Amino acid sequence: MRKLEAFPYHHVLVLGLARSGTAAAKTLLKNGKQVRVNDQQLTTKSTVVQDLVALGAEIVLGSHPLSVLEGIEIIVKNPGISYDNPVLIEAVKRNIPIVTEIEIAYQLVPGTLIGITGSNGKTTTTTLTTKILKESKQQVKVAGNIGIVATEVAESLTDDETLVLELSSFQLQGTIDFRPNIAVILNIYQAHLDYHKSLENYKQAKYNIFRNQTEDDYLIYNADDSDITTAIADTRARRIPFSTTREVQNGAWSDGEAIYFLNEKIMDVEKIVLVGDHHLENILAAICAAKLAGATNEGIERVLTTFAGVEHRLQYVTNLQGRYFYNDSKATNMLATEKALASFKQPTILLAGGLDRGDDLKGLIPHLKNVKGLVSFGETKEKFNEVAKQAGIPHVLTAENVEDAVQKGYGISEENDVILLSPACASWDQYRTFEERGDMFIQAVHKLL
Questions:
Q1: pTM (2 decimals)?
Q2: 368 close to 341: Cβ distance less than 8 angstroms
Q3: Hey, how many other C-beta atoms are within 10 angstroms of the C-beta on 254?
Q4: Are 245 and 222 a contacting pair, CB within 8 Å?
Q5: Could you report the per-residue pLDDT of 60-89, keeping only the tens digit for each?
Q6: pLDDT tens per residue, range 350-377
Q7: Among 99, 54, 111, 50, CA closest to 74
Q8: Rounded to 5 degrees, what are φ and ψ at 303?
Q9: Under 8 Å CB-to-CB from 156, ≥6 apart: which residues?
Q10: Which residues lie closer than 8 Å to 357 by C-beta, 6 or more apart?
Q11: CB neighbours of 6 closer than 8 A, spacing ≥ 6?
């Protein structure tokens, strides 16, 4: 196990366990730190709690009393816990630093660290980068927001292994020294305002990915996103742009026929099997990151000619009676749904809805031209019904949940139609995660079979 040699704090509060908090607590305890754990949900009967007690942790359960801050030098918080939490508000008043688990993981990484963020496309880009490096015979591991706890992976890294991290705004907001050797920022779009309170706060959290970079590091960025190009103006890192609209110097681009990196042709676009024009951004960003980390053109081509997408992101499910089912449950905001809709030319039945974060969904209207039917569900179903009426969609139905939406969507479909789950909303009103929502969609489709 690698040691936390550069972590200067000895008295640590881990606020909220779940997987990331548990991993951070265990790592800190194994490195001789004094750890106090505070979790509102778990009980002393929990195996996780018992394991931490056995390692020497102090446990406070059931509530978040301010007394947990006594003697604490730093807080490692679960990314999902809001900064409105009374403990965190008081910690700010006391000038106690607040970080997330990726700050701990960063201290453990011995070699190259690639960090990838953006409002959309993070998981696909992270997966592509990792696969390309593996196909190029590079030693690589993946973790972070993709569903694998970063600290657990970082502990076992060897000096010659590259770590690829998918990073959310929740994780990045809790960083101090975090500094990837290669940072990727894909796009910025309004999201998670219920957590960050403003678009500017959200942007600043995302921009933490490159804030500590130096002249020895690389920053891969979307040259077509004006917010990003403005934000990186003062970065010290070496800038590597990518663009889907024009040729760029010192980066990656496509002319529609082929993909290029640093003026070298990598491969023809027609060989790429990943559906959706929006994935070209992800592909270009992944090529930049992987090439900088030692990937070969052969490795890139092997991946892009076989990789058809990640689960829950425009995932092809099946063809039933000429209807093509796609699971895009990971589309938790409007931009993701807009890009999903742009991927199909044939008539589409859109299944959408979920947690109401107060977003104005009317921005979807210009992107609904191929949508012949909309089946809405969840807290936003009435909003979607209004949008559908304004867009002139012929068939507008309301469903109880995703399973019901599949049945009703199939009922109004015809041969050669696409039936697309792309909710444009988070899942938490009805499902624990977007993965659970996507799995329910797939199961409902198979029931039709």
A1: 0.81
A2: yes
A3: 21
A4: no
A5: 999 999 999 999 999 999 998 999 999 999
A6: 999 999 988 899 999 999 999 999 999 9
A7: 99
A8: -75, -50
A9: 1, 2
A10: 193, 194, 425, 426
A11: 107
